[in-house]
Each structure stands twice: as structure tokens, then as C-alpha cells.
Amino acid sequence: MKWTDSEDIGIALAEKFPGQDPLTLRFTDLRQRVITLEGFDDDPNRSNEPKLEAIQMAWYEEWKDAQA
Fold first, then answer.
1. Cα–Cα distance measured from residue 39 to residue 15, given in angstroms and rounded to the nearest whole number
2. What angle do CA 36, 1, 47 make, to 5 degrees?
3. How far apart are CA 2 and CA 35, in angstroms?
4. DSSP category for residue 50
5. Domain 6-67 sits in which CATH superfamily?
6. Model confidence pLDDT, tens digit, residues 7-64
7. Can you give the pTM of this predicted structure?
């Protein structure tokens, strides 16, 4: 996965951290969780706020659906 694969990363984060509300994480913590995902193979330094926000929103949608 690359930083631009926000949907795939969001799903992977929801599976790995099912009880975590993604909106409560700082971007620094979110970035750390992304780079430790199995299958993530992008340059850790290529993250930026828009990419992290897209990942956070994708993860939030997965988390929200699981809470319903």
C-alpha cells in the first residue's frame, strides 16, 4: 500500500485497531500506525496532512459502520 491508497489503509487500520475512534488520534500517531501496517511499502517521509486526513476519513467511515 502507498500513502495514496487511503481506502485500503483505512480498512486495514479498522481491522487492526477495531475499538479505536480514528478522530481521536493525532496525525503523528496515525502516521505511525500506517507505517507499521503489514503491506505498507511507501516512503514514510512522503506523508502529508492531506494524505493523512484522507486516511483518517476512510478509517472513520469503516469504524462508524462497525459501530452501527
1. 13
2. 70
3. 10
4. H
5. IscX-like (1.10.10.600)
6. 999 999 999 999 999 999 999 999 999 999 999 999 999 999 999 999 999 999 999 9
7. 0.95
